[in-house]
Write the structure tokens for this entry.
Amino acid sequence: MHAAVVHSFDRAPRFEEFAAPEPAEGTLLVEMVAAGLHPRVRSGADGTHYTSDGRLPLVPGVDGVGRLPDGHLVYFVAGDEGPGTMAEQALVDPRRSVALPADADPVTVAAAMNPAMSSWVALRRRITFRSGQSVMVLGATGNAGRMAVQIARHLGAARIVAAGRDPRRLELLPGLGATDVVPLAGDPDQAFARLGEAAADVDVVLDYTWGEPTERALPAVLTWRTDRSAALDWIQIGSLAGPEITLPSAALRAANLRLMGSGQGSVTARGIVAELPSLITELTRGTLTADALPMPLSQVEEAWSAPVEPGRRIVLTMTGN
């Protein structure tokens, strides 16, 4: 089969021949239809993701849409072993797959499920989120952050504070459900003071940045908080700005701050898969929107460095390669 193959962590994958995976007990070999080029895929391909074991060569891709031997389409999350999904064929564990409705667009599903899953699972599995609560999305101008705004609105958030550096992308977020937008570009002291005031009394933070933005945002929010004994669930999902922060011990003593992560390990694979059908339903209904840019698998090297408009996600398609 043909696949996107990584031979070096400092180079884009190449389109070339690769041995087709052999089905083991409990798995099926499917014909791939589409796989999204997510930040999670890039970090796996450059060896920086926390699950990377350093082995090469590898086929990237963590999820996608495949066609079963009986012709039905499924969305699935790839297993931890074996080649990834950016290939003409891949292995599917039925326990990690969900049948797609007949009217589902496989390219849209491949584009949207990974970024949407991050906030959907965080709000439905990591905490008990209630309609009427308020949410801040830190890093709201990325694809996952943009989707988080829509999901928080869908799940009943009464107020959604969206914070990010890109002013053009911020302008789009009120149309998706944000009630407040806070630009983080410019003077950082002023920017994070504004953020602290705007998000002082939120119930939940969905944090896609970590690093310096979180180091500044966390004390700013706590400083402005009206009632510091009110629970604040700070959910770390992404680390676009860096993998580490310095956290003053006083932040944990002076407020009811509940700091947690959401990702592989903090939620079981079974728990994640259990959320997929309802998420696919909302995507198919159009409740949640995603803008996909399809490119053929044979152009994976170009796709890796292709400029993408705000809110779009590249999806590698396998038909016709």
User: Anything to note?
Assistant: The first strand starts at residue 2 and ends at 5. The longest helix spans residues 106-126. The chain has a mean pLDDT of 93.
